[in-house]
């Protein structure tokens, strides 16, 4: 019989590429991960890994087992959700993740709704970069998390996770009426290799120019403060621009950011997950945002940074 805990380690190795990275993700020692994977090979009866010096790669049999492991782990999540539904109203810990703007604007109202509708639940919020959500969900560190995606940047998805759309919001340009008007301005953008940065650069390129980036800032409140101080122009989502500082003008563009709730595939019908998603929707009723028209149950959350 194949051990699901060892199957999870093999799945992580397929995604992360090294035993050291798997060990860091699951808080094991590399030696313990290697021992577990060797035990899985004995259970499977065929080589799953090819070891060359300090590197390791999956064999064809290893890749095949990862495909089946995903289906097995999904069914186990589905079984856990079904048993939780039998027990009745959701209760106990609910570990939630949110990127900074959502944690500040949306999550407090959602927590109030959960307290009202499901007082037996104990939500625990962790502010987290969407790029780190997939690993945290797969490791069981989070049960549900808010992630987002932008125009101009196809999301990188994780087949072990599912998402449910929540809302879409427009992007705003500070200080100018069009992107073309800002071609000679200094820009304030998030750090390179983040989804926000890639979106902004590609939006400028689509307008026919390469942006001259002066400041790299991730927090949108700080971005708006820099814009108010005349330090450059920036693109910000509506959720971050509900109360801009004095002196900042905002022009709505035909660009959007979309926010989704992410959870482990098979776990979406768990009563606590349904309660969290419902609370997010209720919290949105008081905000000037548009419900998303994305299809539900997409094959995984975007790996992005905010």
TrEMBL record:
Q: Does the keyword Amino-acid biosynthesis feature in the UniProt annotation?
A: no
Domain HTH lysR-type, residue spans? 2-59
The family database entries (PROSITE patterns) matched by this protein are listed as: HTH_LYSR (PS50931)
InterPro entries, A to Z: LysR_HTH_N (IPR000847), LysR_subst-bd (IPR005119), WH-like_DNA-bd_sf (IPR036388), WH_DNA-bd_sf (IPR036390)
Identify the domain of life. Answer: Bacteria
One annotated Gene Ontology cellular component of this protein: protein-DNA complex
Keywords in UniProt for this one?
DNA-binding, Transcription, Transcription regulation
Gene3D superfamilies, alphabetically? Periplasmic binding protein-like II, Winged helix-like DNA-binding domain superfamily/Winged helix DNA-binding domain
Give GO MF terms, alphabetically: DNA binding; DNA-binding transcription factor activity
A Pfam family annotated for this chain is LysR_substrate
Indicate the family of this protein. Answer: Belongs to the LysR transcriptional regulatory family.
What is the protein name given in its UniProt record? DNA-binding transcriptional LysR family regulator
Q: What is the lineage of its organism?
A: Bacteria, Bacillati, Actinomycetota, Actinomycetes, Streptosporangiales
């Amino acid at each position: 019989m194949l051990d699901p805990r060892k199957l999870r380690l093999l799945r992580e190795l397929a995604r992360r590429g090294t035993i050291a990275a798997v060990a860091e993700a699951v808080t094991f020692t590399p030696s313990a991960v290697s021992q577990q994977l060797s035990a899985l090979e004995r259970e499977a009866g065929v080589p799953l890994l090819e070891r060359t010096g300090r590197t390791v790669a999956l064999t064809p049999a290893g890749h095949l087992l990862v495909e089946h492991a995903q289906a097995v782990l999904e069914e186990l999540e589905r079984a856990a959700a079904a048993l939780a539904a039998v027990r009745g109203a959701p209760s106990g810990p609910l570990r939630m993740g949110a990127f900074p703007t959502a944690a500040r604007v949306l999550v407090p109202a959602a927590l109030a709704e959960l307290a009202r509708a499901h007082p037996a639940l104990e939500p625990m919020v962790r502010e987290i970069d969407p790029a780190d959500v997939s690993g945290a969900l797969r490791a069981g560190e989070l049960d549900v998390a808010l992630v987002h995606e932008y125009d101009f940047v196809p999301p990188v998805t994780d087949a072990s996770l599912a998402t449910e759309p929540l809302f879409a919001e427009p992007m705003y340009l500070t200080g100018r009426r069009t992107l073309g008007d800002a071609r000679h301005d200094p820009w304030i953008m998030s750090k390179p290799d983040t989804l926000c940065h890639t979106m902004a650069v590609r939006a400028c390129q689509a307008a026919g120019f390469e942006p001259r980036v002066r400041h790299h800032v991730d927090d949108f409140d700080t971005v708006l403060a820099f814009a108010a101080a005349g330090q450059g122009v920036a693109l910000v989502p509506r959720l971050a621009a509900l109360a801009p500082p004095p002196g900042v003008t905002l022009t709505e563009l035909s660009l959007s950011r979309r926010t989704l709730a992410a959870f482990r595939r098979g776990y979406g019908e768990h009563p606590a997950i349904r309660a969290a998603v419902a609370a997010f929707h209720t919290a949105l009723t008081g905000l000037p945002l548009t419900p998303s028209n994305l299809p539900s149950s997409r094959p995984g959350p975007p790996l992005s940074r905010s």
